[in-house]
UniProtKB/TrEMBL annotation:
Domain Fibronectin type-III residue range list: 168-255, 263-348
InterPro entries: 6-blade_b-propeller_TolB-like (IPR011042), CBM6 (IPR005084), FN3_dom (IPR003961), FN3_sf (IPR036116), Galactose-bd-like_sf (IPR008979), Glc/Sorbosone_DH (IPR012938), Ig-like_fold (IPR013783), Quinoprot_gluc/sorb_DH_b-prop (IPR011041)
Pfam families named among the record's database cross-references: CBM_35, fn3, GSDH
Superkingdom as given in the UniProt entry: Bacteria
Keywords: Carbohydrate metabolism, Glycosidase, Hydrolase, Polysaccharide degradation, Signal
Leader sequence segment: 1-22
CDD domains: CBM35_pectate_lyase-like (cd04082), FN3 (cd00063)
CBM6 domain ranges (all copies): 32-157
Full protein name: Glucose/arabinose dehydrogenase
Length: 678
């Protein structure tokens, strides 16, 4: 469901120099009337007209029994609080209470519908309930044997939007742990309206959810002897998400199944092209069941399949390969590897060049996140995410710390000191720009850099929500001289579709912190419907390309156009939904999890974290299409974070992120490589 949220009149976007730009609120719509005779009601009910004063064509008279109901289907323009004006008559002397439920959840229990003296004496009772954007089902259910009062109509009015986030859930814990399941429990959140649901994340990916009334959830389908890094986020009906709970690491039990599958049968290769090969092998057996086969180079997995053949694509041209296959069972037991097949892909056919060599430029890094070249093309500024340091690095790899960025904080996930960009007019103004996580959220800030040290600190834009994951953070200047900023949806998917929110967007702004002129919605938003965009690069035609993390299905490469909607959370990857723009290329998340991108000779290079490879995606001439994607350095250097074109050369700088929470390597073990293109 796409949610378009109104912004309350008191909502503001914080700008630089302490200025506050208010966001106006649209005038409230008049109540919408829903006649009871057009609603759904329990079998045995009748639409009667034997008492005067009703509205429409009649009123609903339900059976005199507990469980009798009338259900209205109403439509809300946004999520928040709605005022229900229920018109009824109760000609008995007894109260006829009812439970009021919204979308199956009781929000008012035993709500009173007292006597009106006669059946012709109609009265209206008003109640406030939380609703979602779009269609909602509102049901009145009798709680005692008298049944419902006669029901005439419901007037529905969205009275306010809810901007208050739930409180942070309490510390999670795990119990009832087996080899394939566990029960996760947490402390309840509170909310001004009510917690609608809890979303459960494993690292940055949502894996389950629980009802807002729950404080535990059984997680099933897990892998044996595996550690799961779990957090919980509370969500209300308006889509507001809490800060992530504290983290808990829970490890499933070792499996009782210790028998590995048999070795797969003979592996063979056929139909080798420049970028693909067809593989087939004999089936393995297992005492329980074989659940999959990994196609590998050494121990690096290229692809996982369930059958005994596959077309392996994304291979680098004119390159030698030695591949094997292993079988896996549900317990994670791995067979002996098959025989190894060796082959060389066919010659490269491209005018864009391909990676021809790679060498270490600089070592001793801890999560180098952003890289941006100075106008002289001889030095670059590089940020480190978790310690907030900024370095000057020469082309030969000599690095010198030039300062830190004040007010930066971590999120124990993906927040911290993120992107950096250098003003196109740096020679005269000495301005550089950073995006970082702060106490209240994410900020875009400006500092002064004289070539040897950083000074000053000016906040240009804040009000970008933060969370443990999904903070975006890439900065790049466009050919138009404006600063482009990628922002994540802060683990609050609805924000991506809200054009008044700064989250889940590509923003376009001036160097003094204002929305750039000509933006499609007269605010900072340039495009929307993004989950966690982290790669931005302009091609030779001045077009903006973007790489974006998916959740559990597809990662994306998008061509960004002003005002376009890229689909999240309605779509992950390609979908055919009117008004939403499809990506130009998608990948399984195990093969990508993209971060930085760069363009050299009309070819996009995309650094991949979980996929541990550098993807090469050629742009087809000056069209909007891309050609076959091929992968380099699969598993060789670990998690690849940022890729940047080296000025004046057909070269890339490529940095690793093996010291982060997912990589688990010791601080100081990350590197920056130089990749030559020929």
């Amino acid at each position: 469901m796409k949610i378009f949220r109104r912004i309350a009149a008191s909502t503001a976007v914080l700008l630089g120099a302490g200025l506050v730009q208010a966001v106006p609120q649209a005038a409230a719509a008049a109540p919408t009337r829903y006649e009871a005779e057009n609603a759904a009601y329990v079998s045995g009910s009748t639409v009667d007209d034997n008492y005067a004063g009703y509205s429409g064509t009649g009123f609903v008279n339900t059976p005199n029994s507990a469980g009798s109901y009338v259900e209205f289907t109403v439509n809300a323009a946004g999520a928040g609080n709605a005022k229900l004006a229920l018109r009824y008559a109760n000609g008995t002397t007894a109260d006829r209470p009812a439970d009021i439920a919204v979308n199956g959840t009781v929000v008012k229990s035993g709500y009173s519908f007292p006597s009106t003296s006669t059946w012709s004496a109609w009265t209206t009772t008003t109640v406030s309930v939380p609703v979602n954007a779009g269609s909602n089902k509102i049901r009145l259910t009798a709680t005692d044997s008298g049944g419902l009062a006669n029901t005439d109509y419901l007037d529905f009015e969205l009275s306010s939007t809810d901007a208050q986030v739930p409180s942070r859930p309490g510390q999670p814990s795990c119990s009832a742990i087996t080899e394939d399941r566990l029960t996760l429990s947490w402390g309840a959140s509170t909310d001004n309206v009510g917690v609608a649901a809890y979303d459960i994340y494993e690292h940055g990916n949502k894996i389950s959810e629980a009802a807002g009334s729950a404080t535990s959830k059984a997680l099933t389908g897990l892998s044996p002897n595996t550690t799961y890094n779990l957090t919980v986020i509370a969500r209300d009906a308006a889509g507001n998400a809490s800060a992530a709970s504290p983290v808990v690491d829970c490890t499933t039990s070792k499996s009782t199944d210790t028998t590995a599958p048999s070795r797969p049968g003979t592996l063979s290769v056929a139909n080798v092209t420049a970028n693909s090969a067809e593989l087939s092998w004999g089936a393995a057996t297992d005492d329980r069941a074989v659940v999959g086969y990994d196609v590998r180079s050494g121990t690096t997995v290229y692809k996982t399949v369930t059958g005994t053949s596959t077309s392996l694509t994304g291979l680098a041209c004119d390159s030698p390969y030695g591949l094997n296959v292993v079988a896996r069972d549900a317990a994670g037991n791995v067979s002996e590897q098959s025989n190894t097949v060796s082959f060389t892909t066919k010659a490269c056919v491209t005018d864009g060049g391909v990676p021809s060599s790679i060498a270490t430029v600089s070592s001793g890094w801890t999560i180098p996140w952003g890289t941006y070249w100075m106008p002289d093309g001889q030095t670059a500024l590089v940020t480190e995410r978790d310690d907030f340091r900024v370095w000057k690095v020469t082309k030969d790899g000599t690095k010198t710390q030039v300062g830190t960025v004040p007010n930066a904080v971590t999120t124990n996930g993906e927040g911290g000191l993120l992107g950096v960009a250098v003003d196109p007019k740096w020679e005269t103004n000495h301005y550089v720009y950073f995006m970082h996580t702060a106490s209240e959220g994410n900020r875009v800030v400006r500092m002064t850099y004289n070539g040897s040290s950083l000074t000053g600190y000016t906040v240009l834009l804040q009000g970008i929500k933060k969370n443990r994951y999904h903070n975006g953070g890439r900065l790049v200047f466009g050919p138009d001289g404006y600063l482009y900023v990628s922002t994540g949806e802060a683990q609050t998917p609805d924000l991506a579709q809200d054009k008044n929110s700064l989250n889940g967007k590509i923003l376009r702004m001036t160097t003094d912190g204002k929305a750039a002129p000509g933006n499609p919605f007269n605010n900072y938003v340039y495009s929307y419907g993004h989950r966690n965009p982290q790669g931005l690069a302009f091609d030779r035609n001045g077009r903006l390309w973007e790489a974006e993390f998916g959740n559990s299905s597809k990662d994306e490469l998008n061509l960004i156009k002003p005002g376009a909607n890229y689909g999240w959370p309605t779509c992950e990857g390609t979908c055919d939904v009117s008004g939403m723009t499809n990506p130009k290329k998608t990948w399984n998340v195990s093969e990508a999890s993209p971060s930085g991108i760069a363009i050299v000779r009309n070819v996009i290079y995309m650094a991949s974290l979980r996929g541990e490879r550098l993807w090469r995606i050629p742009i087809t001439g000056d069209t909007e299409n891309v050609g076959t994607a091929t992968a380099y350095y699969v598993g060789t250097y670990g998690r690849l974070r940022t890729v940047t074109k080296v000025p004046g050369a057909d070269q890339l700088w490529l940095s690793t992120t093996n010291c982060d929470n997912n990589g688990g390597e010791a601080d100081g073990s990350d590197k920056i490589f130089r990749v030559s293109i020929s």
